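User: Can you help me understand a structure? I only have the sequence.
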Amino acid sequence: MHRNLAEAARAALAAACVPGTDGRAAVPAPRLEGTTTTVVADTCVRGDLGFVLLLHRRKDGLVAEELFFSTREGTGAWGAAEHLSGSGGIPDLTSPEEAAAVLRGWSMTVLGDSWTLLHTGRPQADDGYEPMRFHVLLVDENVGRLDIEDSAAGASPASHRLRKPLTSRVALLALFPGERVIVRTRAEAGAGVRPMGEPVELTGSEAVAGAPWA
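Assistant: Let's start by predicting it. Here is the structure, written out as tokens:
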């Protein structure tokens, strides 16, 4: 099972990083129903590190999430994806009804976070390894994108801001140690956008010399 999921994760990274695209799904994300058993919830690329969150329906009918990791090679292609973590028995977040039950009227909620020690290869990493922290968010169906702002001490107010399009109603953020970001939901309406709900502040692992959000 993990081999098939790993191949799906690698393909998702390749599709999300096609030049001239912003990672937005061309069509609405499929649901875990009928013959669809695996859904790409979201991808997150930090430099040459790529992360993919998959949702899949197990043989016992329960829904599980799996986090995969890959490194971009010198050719620009993504290497084989490796499994980092997973959990089972979660709500079917591709179902509007189950997602709404989890949100309970909020525009965004934090589903959970985890961390793992990875070889990032950054100069500030200890022997190349750093504890990376992963946050998983669920957003309302009316949210068009997430606005992410670097709120770490010393960050410039006008820099390090990112607009994150949504592949599904689930968003994945990967943070390096010492990073701190504020996430806001945005509902797109014609040519304008409007905020929805309260912002959420997310942090990386214990502070060390970190790089700004990229």
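Now, to help you interpret it: Residues 2-16 form the longest helix (15 residues). The helical segments are 2-16, 96-103. Let me know which part you'd like to focus on.
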